[in-house]
């Protein structure tokens, strides 16, 4: 990875066309993901779709949160691979790196600085009550010990969101407690220093807040091995759909089946644009007039149709890794300028420009 070109002159100049001036024209989005691997259908329906839709209206910061990669912070080759996989996925689904900023978190070390300051104003109890943190902590404890950094990652997420003064944070629903925390921290900061430095951001959850896994588990995730990835090829998708969990109470195609809560139909609803076909399948399923095989074949077809253009674009960008690298380098450099401008304001508000 080449280091970002840092343009210190524009970062501190209050006049002229710096990043903060451009941002003033459009409200900002900051959203992010941990670099744990390639993206799947759950990411798409839960968040990405909103990002794609909103990227014109808002100035978007898309963050790859490598400081927060708690699951395998000891495996940096894997983190590196995941960073590029995610950037490729983003390009492939049509997130435009010209209008938006692909950002690698650790290339903007101001995130770490802001986290340190903000952490002083948040009582530990507030984190201990955070339901998402609680659940993740339990998982971690079951596997190994909990690293100190894990406990502070929501604070870092707060710093991520406040850094570009984001107004909107489109995410999966498990992230909402962290956005609530961000609002609280923004309020505290503004109140303490009697300045309006940070806006209170809103969360926005996608069309399918939490997509069920192919195994019927409540959440699609790479670690549960129940995900269909945006980069899966046609055969892989066919095979994964063939193996999908359906209605466990239904033994024969002539048994009346359940549509509600049935992963195959949840996916049809989410990804098959042919509503008539889906309704017809549902009617026949409930009446015991269609087998799982046909339902699954039609689903695989719909998913492949949905994924085809994404795959095509991915192949193009895979053949041009310099585009991916540039998107990450330029986006991160821009974000760093924005971060330096915010940090100047933060220091000023706190009165810590000790020596002028
Ligand atoms: N914690 C988020 C997740 O696990 C990723 C993330 C990091 C994020 N920083 C963020 C999401 C800032 C939204 C805003 O998915």
Strand content: 5-15%
Q: Which strand order do you get reading across the main beta sheet?
A: 1-2-3
Model regions low in confidence, pLDDT < 50 over at least 5 residues: 1-18
Overall helicity: 40-55%
The CATH homologous superfamily of the largest domain: HUPs
User: Mind telling me the C-alpha Rg?
Assistant: 22 Å
Tell me the total number of β-strands.
5
The residue-averaged pLDDT reads 91
User: Total number of helical segments?
Assistant: 14
Ligand names: tryptophan
CATH topology of the largest domain: Rossmann fold
Just give the CATH class of the largest domain. Answer: Alpha Beta
N- to C-terminal distance: 35 Å
- What does the largest sheet look like? 3 strands, parallel
- Kindly name the structural category: mainly alpha
Described by the principal axes of the CA atoms, the overall outline is elongated
Q: What is the number of independent domains?
A: 2
The CATH architecture of the largest domain would be 3-Layer(aba) Sandwich
């Amino acid at each position: 990875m080449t280091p970002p070109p840092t343009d210190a002159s524009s970062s501190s100049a209050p006049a002229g066309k710096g990043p903060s001036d451009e941002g003033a024209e459009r409200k900002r989005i900051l959203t992010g993901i941990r670099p744990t691997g390639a993206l799947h259908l759950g990411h798409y329906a839960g968040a990405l779709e909103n990002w794609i839709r909103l990227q014109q209206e808002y100035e978007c910061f898309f963050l790859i949160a490598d400081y927060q990669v708690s699951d395998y912070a000891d495996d940096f080759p894997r983190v590196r691979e995941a960073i590029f996989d995610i950037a490729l996925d983003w390009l492939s689904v049509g997130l435009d790196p010209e209008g938006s900023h692909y950002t690698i978190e650790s290339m903007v070390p101001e995130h770490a600085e802001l986290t340190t300051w903000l952490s002083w104003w948040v009582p530990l109890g507030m984190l201990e009550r955070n339901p998402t943190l609680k659940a993740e902590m339990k998982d971690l404890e079951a596997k190994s010990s909990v690293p100190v950094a894990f406990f502070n990652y929501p604070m870092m997420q707060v710093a991520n969101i406040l850094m570009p003064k984001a107004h909107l944070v489109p995410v999966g629903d498990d992230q909402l407690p962290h956005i609530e925390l961000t609002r609280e921290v923004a309020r505290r900061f503004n109140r303490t220093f009697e300045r309006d430095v940070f806006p209170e951001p809103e969360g926005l959850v996608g069309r399918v807040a939490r997509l069920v896994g192919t195994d019927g588990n409540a959440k699609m995730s790479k670690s549960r091995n129940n995900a269909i990835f945006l980069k899966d090829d046609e055969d892989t998708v066919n095979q994964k759909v063939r193996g999908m969990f359906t209605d466990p109470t239904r033994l024969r195609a002539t048994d009346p089946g359940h549509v509600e809560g049935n992963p195959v139909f949840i996916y049809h609803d989410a990804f098959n644009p042919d509503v008539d076909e889906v309704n017809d399948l549902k009617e026949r399923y409930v009446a015991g007039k269609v087998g799982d095989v046909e339902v699954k074949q039609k689903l695989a077809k719909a998913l492949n149709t949905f994924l085809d253009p994404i795959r095509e674009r991915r192949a193009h960008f895979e053949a041009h890794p310099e585009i991916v690298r540039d998107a990450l380098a330029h986006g991160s450099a821009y974000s760093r300028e924005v971060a330096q401008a915010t940090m100047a304001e933060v220091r000023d508000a706190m009165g810590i420009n000790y020596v002028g």
